[in-house]
Amino acid sequence: MEAIQDILNSKANIIPVILAGGKGSRLWPLSRESYPKQFLKLNEKNNFSLLQNTYLRLKGIKRLTAPIIICNEEHRFIVAEQMREIKIKPKSIILEPVSRNTAPAIALAALKAQKDTSSDPILLILSADHIIDNSNNLKDTILYAYKYAQDGRLITFGIKPDYPETGFGYIESFEELSNIKKASKIRKFIEKPNKELAEKLIKDNLYSWNSGIFLFKSSTIIKEIDNYDSSIIKLCSESLKDEISDLEFQRINGDKFKKCPDISIDSAVMEKTELGTVTYLDAGWSDIGNWKTIWEKSKKDNFGNSLNGRTIIKDSKNCYLRSDNRLTIGLGINNIAVIETRDAVLVADINSVQTIKELVNELDKKNFQEAKINNKIYRPWGNFTNLEETDKCKVKKIEIKPGARISLQLHNHRSEYWVVVSGIANVEIDGKLKVIKENESIYIPKKCKHRLSNLSKDPLVIIEIQSGSYLGEDDIIRFDDMYGRN
Fold it and tell me: If DSSP codes are grouped into helix, strand and coil, which group holds residue 42?
């Protein structure tokens, strides 16, 4: 009650800052650069994405505002659509022209928060790819930490380690943390340790995992970043001076922002500041970093197997099978992860999945498009799935949301043939309008200006057959687009 009263007595709002710019390559092939893990529905307890859950689990906190979300250009419409699905209008969706790690991203959010309000709000920094089982405990911990943030402390949330994880940073506190003693000044940070060191650290109750969740006043973090690397604040301030509002998005000066150092908030500030405080978080926190983590968090049968999608397993133990399309069967296997998507299949020892990121980098170097691009591509108007492709022919399934439409465009190298599977399509070809319904079709010759719209209240599904000498997605000349794309 005391923590709640502290917030009620204060005028400082809590602004969630959601960092949603990661690539998620360690969950390949399901997560890829074009549609990474933060936008996937990986929590078995509900049907929301990791990004959506990041905000939804905060509901009920006093003085909580809409979030500031930081993402890259490519994912902007995915972020906006997922927020619309949960009926949240962000304070701002800031588009990073390049990734520069968490320190510049947090500096942008803090400066933006100061610019848009006359008060000194509390920033709650969150990664968009965490699972937290107990949202009530999370909210209680945020309320507890609020008073420390109000007093000018920089709060990080620590997790009690239960195994020697080498993929997390560790925090050493001056005092042992528990549900009774919930906060301590920070003695030091340790970057991702090797296995031998991690095994020592988990035996010492002064160490906790660094969750990557932070709470502090916007003015405090701006001052501390400026103290230890003034170039970050200078360049981020200059980036925001030239910001341009584009629909729900804020574009910043890319030339300025690209000069920011590529550095985490831990390295830039938390490892150096005298204001660091670690708060104990006991809320079932998990960083969804790889397939082993997914398996550990999932429901299992009596033999430790977790099955998702069209899967069958027999005479097997401790396996994770996931199929998005084809029937996938495991027979006589142990400690294996099998991930099936339409265009790629991963089979891996579940204890070796930490190296998937290196594998994806190798695929990228060898120019496998599957390294980065999903078979299902999302657009502001809906999505399309590549069903079949040859040198001169491509077949797609296109889904257009109610009230949405593609840009007015033409193609120099391909013709298209559209067949309506369900819904009603409004088609414009060289200024002439036509309505086509289920089981009807229409032909669009190359070099004809055309647009496809869904003016109904139901989704529109069509099959598109392309033919021509070049079928690349860059064979598009846009003349008019409701989403502001060139």
Answer: coil
The structural domains of the chain, ordered by start, are 2-287 (3.90.550.10), 291-365 (no CATH), 376-480 (2.60.120.10)
Cβ proximity of 31 and 356 under 8 Å: no
- Give the pLDDT of residue 349: 96
List Cβ<8 Å contacts ≥24 apart for 296-301: 297/44, 297/131, 298/44, 299/44
Q: Is 332 left (phi over 0), alpha (psi -120 to 50) or beta?
A: left
Name residue, tokens 């911990």: 141
The H-or-E segment that residue 477 falls in is strand 477-480
Q: Output the pLDDT for position 7.
A: 56
Which amino acid is it at 94? I
pLDDT at 211: 95
Give the list of residues 6+ apart from residue 147 with CB closer than 8 angstroms, or none: 3, 6
Task: Put the strands of the sheet holding 306-314 in their side by side order.
Answer: 306-314, 320-331, 336-340, 345-349
With a cut of 70, which residues of the chain have pLDDT below it?
1-10
Burial code (b: 16+ CB inside 10 Å, e: under 16) for 91-122 equals: bbbbbbbeebbbbbbbbbbbbbbbeeeeebbb
The whole-number pLDDT of residue 486 equals: 72
pLDDT computed for residue 418 by the predictor: 97
Residue 153: the pLDDT is: 97
Instruction: Identify the pLDDT of residue 10.
Output: 65
Question: What's the rounded Cα separation, in Å, for the pair 478 and 458?
Answer: 26
CA dist., res. 279 & res. 201, Å (int) = 18
Q: Give, as one character, the DSSP assignment of residue 459.
A: -
